[in-house]
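Hi F.,

I've been meaning to write this up properly since the lab meeting, where we talked about keeping a consistent format for the predictions we share between groups. The idea is simple: the sequence comes first, exactly as it goes in, then the C-alpha cells exactly as they come out, then a line or two of notes. No screenshots and no reformatting. I'm using this chain as the first example so we have something concrete to point to.
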Amino acid sequence: MDGDGDPVVRSETTTLAVGDGRRRREVDVRGYTAGSGDPVVLLHGCGLDAATVSYRYLLPELAADHRVHAIDFPGHGHSDKPSTRYTTDFFRRVLAAYLDERVVESPSLVGISMGGSVALGHALENDVDRLVLVDSYGLGGDAHWRPAASVGLRIPMVHREWWRSLGASPASVRGHLRSVTAGTPPADLVEDVYAAVQDDAVGRTVRSWQRSEFRATGLQTDYRDRLSELEAQTLLVHGRSDPLLPASWSERAAGALPNGEARVYDRTGHWPPRERPERFNEDVTAFLS
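Output, unedited:
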C-alpha cells in the first residue's frame, strides 16, 4: 500500500493492560495505522475476520484525509490469543485501553458485526465524533438461528469439528461464505478469510464469544433501549440479504437514534465492505468527511 501514491500503512504491536476492576492482564494487540487528520478507528467482526480482512480497501481510502487505526482484537489476526473468556465487554475494554494508550481522543468509529456492538457500546459511554455501524450486532434481541447455535455451542467437539472443516481448504471457506454473503464471494475475500481461520486459537475465541452471547433465551447484547441516548451522527449500513442479522435491525435503529441514517444495499449479505467495496468506501468516506 506504499507505492504509486498509496498511503503507507504501518503495523505496530501495543501492549495493553486490560481488566474489569478486579484483575488485569497484559495482552499484545496488533494495530495498523495510516494517514493524518481526524482519527478514525476500524473494528472488525468475530472469528472469520481481522483488521485487514473487512477493511482491506477502506483503510487506505480513509487514510487520504484521516488518521486511521485498525486493530486486531485479541484472539484474532496477529494479536495475542490468550485462553480467556471473550465477551463483548472484554472487547470494549480492549478498545478503551487502546485509545488511552495511543492517546486517540474523540475518534469516529466504524464497526462491522460484532465490532459494531463494540463501537456502539463504547459510544454510549464515551465521546466519539461519528459512528458507522455495518450489519451490526447489538441491535436486536434474538435471531432465527440462535436456538440451534446455543445448543451446538454446549458440545465442544461439534464446534471444534465445524471450525476445522470450515478452514480445511479455500473451497470449504468459499462454501461457508456463500451462506453469509449474497451470491459468489469475491476470490480475494476467500483468500483473506482462509488465512484468518488457520489458527485453532481463533476458533477457541469464536466459541467463547458465541457462548457468552448466544444464550438459551436470546442474544446477550442488545442496545435498543439506549439508542435515544446517543447524540453522535450515525450511519447504519446493511446488506438487504444478510442471513445472520436482518436489515430491519438497522432500519429500526436509524429511526430510534436522534441522528441516525440507514442505507440498505441490495444484493448484499453480511459483508458490505468486501461485497460492495466501491459503494461502501464512497458512502463511509463521504459521511466521515
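Notes:
The chain has a mean pLDDT of 94.
The longest helix spans residues 88-101.

If this format works for you, I'll send the rest the same way.

G.
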